[in-house]
Design a protein that fits this description.
By secondary structure, this protein is α/β, with parallel strands linked by helices. The chain folds into two domains: 27-129 and 256-324, Bordetella uptake gene, domain 1 (D-Maltodextrin-Binding Protein, domain 2); 131-247, 3-Layer(aba) Sandwich (D-Maltodextrin-Binding Protein, domain 2). The protein contains twelve helices and eleven strands. A six-stranded mixed β-sheet has the order 2-1-3-10-4-11, sandwiched between helices. A five-stranded mixed β-sheet has the order 7-6-8-5-9, with helices on both faces. The longest helix is centred in the first third of the chain and has 29 residues, at 2-30. Residues 1-10 and 13-25 have low confidence and may be disordered.
Length: 329
């Protein structure tokens, strides 16, 4: 009798598993059956992140044979966009395209309205945007060592750097370097990288740490000088500029990654369709050219790899917040 009950139970489980597999397969075949798919970008139109998203969405639409539109929900360092996606239906039609602000925000803001790891799941690692320490041509430091020496001195006019804001990738890249080197600078946060770069070019602030996207044209024009790169590897765009890692801090890597996310409960079959469409779009020359125009690199990777990066970054950024006493504005 017991054997029959076990057998019936096993049969029910097998039937349930079969039904689930069939439903998942059907869902993958049906998705996307409507339009549009919304690619939510947490930054204003016209910036580097927005430009890359708009190249990606066009090619994804061609692959999926459905409209993929970019929707900008800028503000609060990308948290407004992430919150919107986290609370959207988990059906694959609302996708977040963001940078490593995604991890920084979880470490910086103690009371987010969503949980980065619990409520969202990575779909595709897209690429990275290297950052750089740059300076006004008249600034005294020309090397990383000279720059760090300023951070160890009590000179309020020289031990100053700008960034795109509290919690920006540039701010955290600088804070991490300060912790490793045991020095301290005065941080001047701006509302975006554009105003910060303008003030450094104008000589109001001597140094800046920001993505190469906005800095590179001014470095090429001689309006800024590059001191060091935050990426693990040198850049072909600035072959004579050393990385921080090779300038005395092995393992230092504070690029700003790019990736896509969906609500945690999104079915794996739907995520697989989105992931494959993103990878296919990334093969198109127009996407590669747009990323390279923003001084970025394509580094395609799985959703699992992206989630692992997010988790590791949250731990590292949380430690930076504690070490440097960083407070959200």
């Amino acid at each position: 009798m017991k054997t029959k009950r076990v057998a019936k139970s096993g049969l029910r489980l097998a039937l349930m598993a079969g039904a689930l597999a069939a439903a998942t397969g059907t869902l993958a075949q049906e998705f996307p059956s409507k339009a549009p798919i919304r690619l939510i970008v947490g930054f204003a139109p016209g910036g580097g992140t927005d430009a890359i998203a708009r190249a990606l969405n066009t090619r994804m639409g061609e692959v999926l044979k459905q409209s993929v539109v970019v929707e900008n929900r800028s503000g609060a360092g990308g948290t407004l966009a992430a919150d919107h996606v986290a609370k959207s239906p988990p059906d694959g039609y609302t996708v977040l395209f963001t940078l490593n602000n995604h991890s920084i925000n979880q470490a910086l803001y103690p009371k987010l309205s969503y949980d980065t790891e619990r409520d969202l799941r990575g779909v595709t690692l897209v690429g990275s945007l290297p950052q750089a320490i740059a300076a006004h041509p008249s600034a005294s430091a020309n090397t990383l060592q000279q720059f760090l020496q300023l951070g160890a001195k009590d000179d309020p006019k020289q031990r100053v750097y700008a960034s795109g804001g509290v919690g920006s990738p540039g701010h955290f890249a600088a804070a991490y370097l300060e912790s490793l080197a045991g020095v301290g600078f005065t941080h001047i946060p701006y509302r975006g990288a554009g105003p910060a770069i303008s003030d450094v070019i104008g000589g109001q602030v001597p140094y800046i740490l920001s993505t190469l996207t906005g800095l590179l044209p001014h470095i090429k024009a001689g309006k800024l000088k590059a001191i060091a790169l935050t990426s693990a590897e040198p850049s072909t765009l600035l072959p004579n500029v050393p990385t921080i890692a090779e300038s005395g801090f092995p393992g230092y890597d504070m690029d700003s990654w790019m990736g896509t996310f969906v609500p945690r409960a999104t079915p794996p079959a739907v995520m697989r369709v989105l992931h494959e469409a993103t990878l296919e779009a990334m093969k198109q020359p127009a996407v590669r050219e747009r990323v390279e125009a923003q001084a970025g690199r394509l580094t395609p990777g799985s959703g699992e790899a992206l989630d692992a990066i997010v988790g590791a970054d949250i731990k590292r950024y949380t430690q930076i917040v504690r070490d440097r006493g960083i407070k959200a504005e």
